[in-house]
Amino acid sequence: MLKINEHYLKLQASYLFSDIAKRVAAFQHAHPDKNIIRLGIGDVTKALPPACIAAFHRAVDEMAVDSSFRGYGPEQGYAFLREAIAQHDFQARGAEISADEIFISDGAKCDTGNIQELFSSEARVAIPDPVYPVYLDTNVMAGRTGAFADGRYQGLVYLDSTAENNYVPKLPNEPVDLIYLCFPNNPTGSTISKAELKTWVDYAKANKALILFDAAYEAFIRDESLPHSIYEIEGAREVAIEFRSYSKSAGFTGTRCAYTVIPKECAAYDSAGNKQFIHPLWNRRHCTKFNGVSYPVQRAAEAVYSDEGKAQCKALISGYLENADLIAAAVKELSFDYIGAANAPYVWIRCKRDSWEFFDMLLNKAGVVCTPGAGFGKCGQGYIRLSAFNSRENVVKALERIRQALA
Amino acid sequence: MLKINEHYLKLQASYLFSDIAKRVAAFQHAHPDKNIIRLGIGDVTKALPPACIAAFHRAVDEMAVDSSFRGYGPEQGYAFLREAIAQHDFQARGAEISADEIFISDGAKCDTGNIQELFSSEARVAIPDPVYPVYLDTNVMAGRTGAFADGRYQGLVYLDSTAENNYVPKLPNEPVDLIYLCFPNNPTGSTISKAELKTWVDYAKANKALILFDAAYEAFIRDESLPHSIYEIEGAREVAIEFRSYSKSAGFTGTRCAYTVIPKECAAYDSAGNKQFIHPLWNRRHCTKFNGVSYPVQRAAEAVYSDEGKAQCKALISGYLENADLIAAAVKELSFDYIGAANAPYVWIRCKRDSWEFFDMLLNKAGVVCTPGAGFGKCGQGYIRLSAFNSRENVVKALERIRQALA
Predict the structure, then answer these.
(1) Distance CA B138, CA B154 (A)
(2) Nearest-5° angle of CA A45, CA A50, CA A55?
(3) Record: contact A269-B48, CB cut-off 8 A
(4) Which residues form the Aminotransferase class I/classII large domain (chains A, B) (predicted)?
(5) Which of A27, A157, A218, A281 could cysteine-pair with A228, CB 3.0–4.6 Å?
(6) Do both A254 and A324 map to the same domain?
(7) What secondary structure letter does DSSP report for A233?
(8) Final residue of a domain: which of A242, A275, A306?
(9) Are residues A268 and A173 in the same domain?
(10) For residue A331, what is the DSSP state?
(11) Quick check: B6 and A120 CB within 8 A?
């Protein structure tokens, strides 16, 4: 008799965004004439940069002719893309990362979800609260937690991110092995300084722990003093893996391309206490369970690093950041406390009531979709997240509707 | 101290095809002027069908304009593709599969690798020998095996596929829970009849086991009596998951699109013995660890089902099958025993000596890359696989060189 992986049965209800989608669909069904504006899920709305489109087309044309057709590519990604990344995203900022430390994938969701497979099921995991649900759910599936009780999974160390610590969690009081961090943060939009990030790197070194650093939103940083990469911090190469994505920086949510950086020195340990480097383990996983990203998509991603591509991505990001500024200004005017917007496409708003209640109110009275903070964890209760990913016109209209709904 | 998943340390050397690539690179480095012909890895060489190219371009153009731009799609895949699959690949053949039982992914390698996560780490796994290494390695990583000894992982049930059983394994003598089957077979090219497949479905029903049926090569079937899908067999909906891919049927190895079918009735059990349906478990995994396939790629795959697309794919397949016929004829002429070619792009050849020795001989004397059978398992020792995936010209040239090398 085949038994299932019973850890799946511990998972709470459905995945946050599916849940939201269902409520929105029900509302739309009941009010087919209502024009709903979505500031919920962090999904981009503007077209791909023209440089990416041109490169995409050129690569599709290559696939149309036997002599230039490409079959299986390297599982780790093509050298042209890995080299462009190493040069532009890291070396140009003084972070020593080489092309062969970069693994191209079809999404940071996949990579942040899959990375935990490399580690012992006994690993003590520290996860921020509020948090992107993928970090949490994938560790539940892998059996690193107990049951769900009182709004939290037993056996995990939650890192509270609240107004009291300016939404940057403090070091844990108990020893942990695997630490998830995300800055600029999803969902709060908060940022971490180099000095604060250094305390985490030092903690990881002292405790032989590993930091999983999600930098999917680094392109939104405007404050020049903030780190774009954890590898700007001394010592991070030994204790940190970094995740990046073109989803938000170049509008690739529907095109699918991302990458993960695993420096050669980065290590964990076997049960005899011997150092085991993570790079060959991930390489083995990548080669065994993945077959590389679509060739034309990798060419489209490469174009992000051309002069036109850089300028076009910058303009995209600026547009979203201006939306974030408008949202922040409106929220302030309505006397809500908030964080984010300055260096992130998200505004995290203390809504002075239950998150889902506020979500339903905004949906029903304003026809605006937000993300209920409670969906990101216990510390998110009483908050909602508004996303800047929409057209200027829609953002302005949504803010006007929110003003009226709250009047 | 973070510990690794030590099951990874049980994995043998490097992944088969990386291993081959290294030997070929070393040979090419030593003989930079030699023109090597690759009949090793099953990678297609002919351009994408024009219908797919046209659809691909159109979808890229949609991504260039805000009003038609698509961000995150459904994790399970777009309805336009799932519906085309249900209709053309299943319902048209009398197999009752609906669109919402189909999950689009970026590769059958990923799906066949990831599916085991849904099941208990105690599951008793039956794996054919010879076999596509992904089935094996992913179960090793998940801890369902003991150490590697004498050419095999302890704790697995190996299903010998040899000349004695015409390369279709017999039912196991001991109870198993999870059964991997692949027909037309990779690497042997052997096929299974409906009557034989029915014995496996009946076994699975009687033992509450599950069949993971890899049908990546179904498009190569010429014998009308053979099943294209396991769902052509009565009762299979309750006990079988099927994997399909556009890699070989439409030349998508570098474009990346595949799908997995999980019928609603398909179930495993929890430790209390209660039936647990697999569809919602896989849906949860897909939504948590995957973000859908690139939109333009899904449009390119949809075009496979247009009238032009069907005709073009058929022509592609016919070209490769004619190559397979040429290889089979040459091999027969050289007095080797073989199977395959008739309904598959592979020819499995008994080479009368050590597989890797024959591999090295073919590489060095003929400049031809094959795949050593031993890389697919113990039963593959003494065999090599030749693939029909190359241009006619290269296949003819390779066969001539092999004739001379063996003369």
Answers:
(1) 15
(2) 120
(3) no
(4) 35-402
(5) A218
(6) no
(7) S
(8) A306
(9) yes
(10) H
(11) yes
Tell me, yes or no, whether A337 lies in a domain: yes
What rounded mean pLDDT belongs to chain A? Answer: 96
Choose among B22, B40, B46, B17: nearest CA to B253. Answer: B46
User: Which chain B residues touch A43 with a CB distance below 8 Å?
Assistant: 71-72
pLDDT in tens, A35-82: 999 998 889 999 999 999 999 999 999 999 999 999 999 999 999 999
Residue to mutate among B6, B288, B387, with most A CBs inside 10 A, is B288
Q: Are strands A338-340 and A346-350 parallel, antiparallel or unpaired?
A: antiparallel
CATH number at residue B140: 3.40.640.10
Contact A110 B291 (CB under 8 A): yes
On whether both A223 and A366 belong to a single domain, the answer is: no
Rounded distance between C-alpha atoms, residue A102 and residue A104, angstroms: 6
Q: Do A71 and B43 touch (CB under 8 A)?
A: yes
Interval B52-78: pLDDT, tens: 999 999 999 999 999 999 999 999 999
Q: Tell me whether residues A270 and B18 touch, CB distance under 8 A.
A: no
CA distance B58 to B297: 11
Q: Are A2 and B115 in contact (CB under 8 A)?
A: no
Distance (Å) from the C-alpha of residue B375 to the closest C-alpha of chain A?
A: 14
- Give the length of chain A: 407
Q: If phi over 0 gives left and psi between -120 and 50 gives alpha, with beta otherwise, what is residue B173? A: alpha
What is Dmax (Cα atoms) for chain A? Answer: 65
Cα–Cα distance list, B237 to B97, B211, B242, B277, B284 (Å):
9, 10, 10, 12, 20
Straight-line distance from the first to the last Cα atom of chain B, in angstroms, rounded to the nearest whole number: 60
Q: Buried (b) or exposed (e) across B321-357, using 16+ Cβ within 10 A?
A: bebbebbbebbeeeebebbbbbbbbbbbbebeeebbe
- Sequence-distant (6+) residues with CB within 8 A of A242 are A213, A214, A215, A229, A230, A231, A260, A261
Domain enclosing residue B180, as ranges? 53-306
Which residues in chain B have Cβ-Cβ distances shorter than 8 Å to A251?
Answer: 69, 71
Q: Is residue A1 part of a domain?
A: no
Cβ–Cβ under 8 Å, residues A230 and A198:
no
Q: Which two tokens stand for residue A256?
A: 């699918």
Residue of B nearest to A269 (CA): B3
Token pair recorded at residue A81: 């893309």
Residue B13: which pLDDT band, with cuts at 50, 70 and 90? confident
- B158 within domain boundaries: yes
In B14-164, DSSP assigns E strands to: 37-38, 102-105, 125-129, 148-149, 152-153, 157-160
DSSP string for A348-374: EEE-SS-HHHHHHHIIIII-EE-EEGG
Chain A's closest residue to B19, CA to CA, is A287
Band of pLDDT at residue B16, cut at 50, 70 and 90: confident
Whether B156 and B295 share a structural domain: yes
Among A350, A300, A380, smallest CA distance to A59 is for: A300
Output the CA–CA distances (angstroms, integers) from residue A159 to A112, A147, A348, A377, in the order listed.
18, 18, 17, 11
Residue B28 lies in a domain: yes
